[in-house]
Amino acid sequence: MTVTETERWLELLEQKGSRITGPRKAIVELMVDADHALNPVDVFDRARVKYPKMGLVTVYRTLEVLSDLGLVERVHQADDCHMYLRAAQGHEHLLICSCCGKAAYFSGDDLGMLIQRISMESGFSIQGHWLQLQGLCQSCQPKKIQTQQGE
Amino acid sequence: MTVTETERWLELLEQKGSRITGPRKAIVELMVDADHALNPVDVFDRARVKYPKMGLVTVYRTLEVLSDLGLVERVHQADDCHMYLRAAQGHEHLLICSCCGKAAYFSGDDLGMLIQRISMESGFSIQGHWLQLQGLCQSCQPKKIQTQQGE
DNA sequence: TCCTTATTGAAAATGTTTTTCATTTTCATT
DNA sequence: AATGAAAATGAAAAACATTTTCAATAAGGA
Ligand SMILES: [Mn+2]
Ligand SMILES: [Mn+2]
Ligand SMILES: [Zn+2]
Ligand SMILES: [Zn+2]
User: What is the assigned CATH class of domain A89-151?
Assistant: First the structure.
């Protein structure tokens, strides 16, 4: 599954007239599999394992290319706003572990009523929304006992 | 109302053992009233009108102090993740105009059901959420006719 | 294999935020 | 009102993150 997804990304890259290169393959392979949002340096460190002469500049450039193709997207967290993760499929939002950073998409939110009400009350015409849940993933729950913030 | 709110901020500052200074007054006055999220340079430019010898470093430092006191908070937007706005009162979320940047808080979202479901499905224990609506404010609607992104 | 051109990595440039430090200002105490 | 300790300030330097420049390299069609 990972292999075919990697191939899909590379084919898309090719279709758009980009060349398939060693550095790009290394970055695609790792981004396809990543279950944490990664910042450019994270990507750099991981990519260098597969492609040792990788330059950090190429990481920036490749993330931009993948982002333009809609394959990865930027993720904002309180401490780091320049993280990247495979893009959402359709209408999905992120759930991120505040301890280890593990990220998962979810879908099925319904803000229609809320948006309609706020639209009325504020006079804004609402174009989009941004929703992100923070929590502790299963493997981090034993490690941390923290207070829960409701609603 | 603005005057008393400014005073409240300054008193809080004083209570916490900080000194009330010219630069801080200028920044507090402008942040109390701001209806747009402002980045440090925005704050700098505006504060210099009232306090011409203001240094940019002081802006950074003062925003941090106000943020530590819970009086302002950092706002993330697609193009600029280091913007500051007066802090939410209780459980509020932001509505921001994608054209002019006008910001308004709203409350009354209820994600309880959603959170419970996602919690079940994912195994995460959910601690908090981050919700932001983007749209066009009343005065920007005539200017731009844009496609609407649903739900 | 050859050739054109996109891509690459190093280095330099740029832009932002933080640190350092001598000077100024605040404000509690005379 | 004058004094003095400590906090705050602004200029300059340093540290960081990101982008640009450019000569060398590599991709992939002919
Ligand atoms: Mn949604
Ligand atoms: Mn952000
Ligand atoms: Zn975790
Ligand atoms: Zn507007």
Answer: alpha beta
Q: Round to a whole number and report the distance in Å from the CA of A18 to the C1' of C3.
A: 18
**Distance in angstroms: CA B59, C1' C20:** 17
Question: What are the boundaries of each domain within chain A?
Answer: 1-87, 89-151
Q: Tens digit of pLDDT for each residue in A71-127?
A: 999 999 988 999 999 999 999 999 999 988 899 999 999 999 999 999 999 999 999
Pairing of the two strands B83-86 and B93-97: unpaired
Is the CB of residue A109 less than 8 Å away from at least one CB of chain B? yes
Number of helices followed by number of strands (H, E) in chain B:
5, 5
Task: Tell me how many degrees the CA angle B140-B141-B146 measures, rounded to the nearest 5.
Answer: 115
H or E stretch including A12?
helix A2-15
Q: Which residues pair with A93 in a beta bridge?
A: A106
Quick: pLDDT tens for B38-89. Answer: 999 999 999 999 999 999 999 999 999 999 999 999 999 988 999 999 999 9
Nearest to A122 among B106, B117, B148 (CB): B106
Quote the minimal CA–CA distance from A109 to chain B in Å. 6
Rounded to an integer, what distance in angstroms lies between the CA atom of residue A71 and that of residue B24? 45
Candidates B115, B126, B137, B140, partner chain A, best to mutate (most A CBs within 10 A): B126
Q: What is the pLDDT of residue B149?
A: 42
Q: Does domain A1-87 have CATH number 3.30.460.80?
A: no
Crossing angle for the helix pair B2-15 and B56-68, to the nearest 10 degrees: 80
- Structure tokens that stand for B113 in this block: 């059901």
